[in-house]
Protein backbone atom coordinates (compact mmCIF):
# COMPACT_ATOMS: atom_id res chain seq x y z
CA UNK A 1 0.00 0.00 0.00
CA UNK A 2 1.42 3.39 -0.98
CA UNK A 3 2.09 6.28 1.36
CA UNK A 4 -0.34 8.41 -0.64
CA UNK A 5 -3.13 5.87 -0.07
CA UNK A 6 -2.35 5.79 3.65
CA UNK A 7 -2.37 9.56 3.86
CA UNK A 8 -5.68 9.79 2.01
CA UNK A 9 -7.18 7.17 4.30
CA UNK A 10 -5.94 8.91 7.43
CA UNK A 11 -7.28 12.27 6.22
CA UNK A 12 -10.70 10.99 5.15
CA UNK A 13 -13.74 11.78 7.23
CA UNK A 14 -16.91 9.80 7.61
CA UNK A 15 -19.51 11.32 5.34
CA UNK A 16 -23.12 10.28 5.80
CA UNK A 17 -25.72 11.32 3.24
CA UNK A 18 -28.94 9.95 1.86
CA UNK A 19 -28.17 7.64 -1.11
CA UNK A 20 -29.90 9.98 -3.56
CA UNK A 21 -27.87 13.01 -2.45
CA UNK A 22 -24.63 11.04 -2.84
CA UNK A 23 -25.60 10.11 -6.38
CA UNK A 24 -26.67 13.68 -7.20
CA UNK A 25 -23.59 15.42 -5.79
CA UNK A 26 -20.98 12.79 -6.61
CA UNK A 27 -19.86 12.48 -3.00
CA UNK A 28 -18.00 9.39 -1.92
CA UNK A 29 -18.65 7.63 1.37
CA UNK A 30 -15.59 6.91 3.47
CA UNK A 31 -15.86 5.03 6.74
CA UNK A 32 -12.74 4.59 8.81
CA UNK A 33 -12.53 2.70 12.08
CA UNK A 34 -10.19 0.41 13.91
CA UNK A 35 -13.06 -2.03 14.54
CA UNK A 36 -14.09 -4.91 12.36
CA UNK A 37 -16.84 -3.89 9.88
CA UNK A 38 -19.20 -6.51 11.35
CA UNK A 39 -18.92 -4.70 14.70
CA UNK A 40 -20.06 -1.41 13.14
CA UNK A 41 -22.92 -2.21 10.79
CA UNK A 42 -24.97 -5.14 9.60
CA UNK A 43 -24.22 -7.32 6.60
CA UNK A 44 -26.91 -5.73 4.41
CA UNK A 45 -25.36 -2.29 4.86
CA UNK A 46 -21.90 -3.63 3.98
CA UNK A 47 -23.23 -5.17 0.77
CA UNK A 48 -24.32 -1.70 -0.36
CA UNK A 49 -20.75 -0.44 -0.10
CA UNK A 50 -19.23 -1.92 -3.23
CA UNK A 51 -15.59 -0.95 -2.70
CA UNK A 52 -13.88 -1.70 0.59
CA UNK A 53 -10.19 -1.08 1.30
CA UNK A 54 -8.38 -2.56 4.27
CA UNK A 55 -5.60 -0.26 5.44
CA UNK A 56 -2.95 -1.97 7.50
CA UNK A 57 -0.72 -0.32 10.08
CA UNK A 58 2.32 1.31 8.49
CA UNK A 59 5.83 0.00 8.81
CA UNK A 60 8.32 2.18 10.69
CA UNK A 61 9.70 3.38 7.33
CA UNK A 62 6.28 4.41 6.02
CA UNK A 63 5.41 5.98 9.39
CA UNK A 64 8.63 8.03 9.19
CA UNK A 65 7.78 9.27 5.70
CA UNK A 66 4.21 10.21 6.69
CA UNK A 67 5.64 11.98 9.76
CA UNK A 68 8.18 13.87 7.63
CA UNK A 69 5.52 14.96 5.14
CA UNK A 70 3.19 16.06 7.91
CA UNK A 71 6.01 18.10 9.48
CA UNK A 72 6.48 19.84 6.13
CA UNK A 73 2.75 20.40 5.73
CA UNK A 74 2.31 21.83 9.24
CA UNK A 75 5.44 23.96 9.30
CA UNK A 76 7.27 21.87 11.90
CA UNK A 77 10.96 21.34 11.22
CA UNK A 78 11.52 17.62 10.79
CA UNK A 79 14.14 16.25 13.15
CA UNK A 80 15.03 12.56 13.01
CA UNK A 81 16.01 12.69 16.70
CA UNK A 82 12.54 13.98 17.61
CA UNK A 83 10.90 11.12 15.74
CA UNK A 84 13.22 8.58 17.38
CA UNK A 85 12.37 10.10 20.78
CA UNK A 86 8.65 9.79 20.07
CA UNK A 87 8.99 6.16 18.96
CA UNK A 88 11.31 5.11 21.79
CA UNK A 89 9.84 7.01 24.72
CA UNK A 90 6.20 6.61 23.91
CA UNK A 91 5.84 3.70 21.52
CA UNK A 92 3.48 6.20 19.87
CA UNK A 93 0.49 4.45 21.41
CA UNK A 94 0.12 2.48 24.62
CA UNK A 95 -0.35 -0.73 22.63
CA UNK A 96 2.76 0.11 20.64
CA UNK A 97 0.93 0.07 17.29
CA UNK A 98 1.79 2.63 14.65
CA UNK A 99 -1.20 4.18 12.90
CA UNK A 100 -1.05 6.28 9.74
CA UNK A 101 -3.13 9.00 11.39
CA UNK A 102 -0.79 9.47 14.37
CA UNK A 103 1.75 11.78 12.68
CA UNK A 104 -0.92 14.25 11.56
CA UNK A 105 -2.79 14.23 14.86
CA UNK A 106 0.25 14.39 17.12
CA UNK A 107 1.89 17.12 15.04
CA UNK A 108 -1.32 19.19 14.91
CA UNK A 109 -1.53 18.91 18.68
CA UNK A 110 2.15 19.79 19.04
CA UNK A 111 1.73 22.84 16.76
CA UNK A 112 -1.30 23.99 18.75
CA UNK A 113 0.58 23.71 22.04
CA UNK A 114 3.52 25.63 20.56
CA UNK A 115 1.18 28.35 19.25
CA UNK A 116 -0.48 28.64 22.68
CA UNK A 117 2.92 28.91 24.39
CA UNK A 118 4.12 31.36 21.73
CA UNK A 119 7.14 29.22 20.85
CA UNK A 120 8.20 27.82 17.46
CA UNK A 121 6.76 24.35 16.73
CA UNK A 122 9.68 21.94 17.04
CA UNK A 123 10.22 18.28 17.82
CA UNK A 124 11.51 18.91 21.33
CA UNK A 125 11.02 16.31 24.06
CA UNK A 126 8.87 18.77 26.03
CA UNK A 127 6.46 19.47 23.16
CA UNK A 128 6.40 15.82 22.08
CA UNK A 129 5.62 14.70 25.65
CA UNK A 130 2.81 17.23 26.01
CA UNK A 131 1.31 16.46 22.60
CA UNK A 132 1.41 12.74 23.28
CA UNK A 133 -0.18 13.15 26.73
CA UNK A 134 -2.95 15.28 25.23
CA UNK A 135 -3.59 12.93 22.29
CA UNK A 136 -3.47 9.60 24.14
CA UNK A 137 -5.52 9.78 27.29
CA UNK A 138 -5.69 6.94 29.77
CA UNK A 139 -9.21 5.57 30.10
Kindly describe this structure.
There is one protein chain. The chain is an all-alpha fold. 54% of the residues lie in helices and 0% in strands. It has seven helices and no strands. Helix 4 (60-74) packs parallel to helix 6 (102-117) and helix 6 (102-117) crosses helix 7 (125-135). The protein starts with a helix and ends with a helix.
Short description:
This protein is mainly alpha-helical and 139 residues long. The chain is 54% helix and 0% strand.
Keywords:
54% helix, mainly alpha, 2 domains
Topology of this protein?
Blueprint lengths: L2 H9 L7 H7 L17 H6 L11 H15 L5 H11 L11 H16 L7 H11 L4
Helix pairs in contact: 4-6, 5-7, 6-7
Uncertain parts = 12-22
Order of helices and strands: HHHHHHH
Query: What is the CA–CA distance across the termini?
Result: 32 Å
Largest beta-sheet characterization: none
Bulk shape: elongated
Question: What structural class do the secondary elements suggest?
Answer: mainly alpha
Integer-rounded radius of gyration: 17 Å
Could you report the average pLDDT, rounded to the nearest whole number? 81
Number of strands: 0
Helix content: 40-55%
How many domains? The number is: 2
Number of helices: 7
Strand content: under 5%
Amino acid sequence: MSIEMLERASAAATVAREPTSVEQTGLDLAMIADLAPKDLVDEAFLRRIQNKVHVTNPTVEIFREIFRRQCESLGVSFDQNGLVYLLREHDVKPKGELRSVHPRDILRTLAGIARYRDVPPALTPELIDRARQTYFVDL
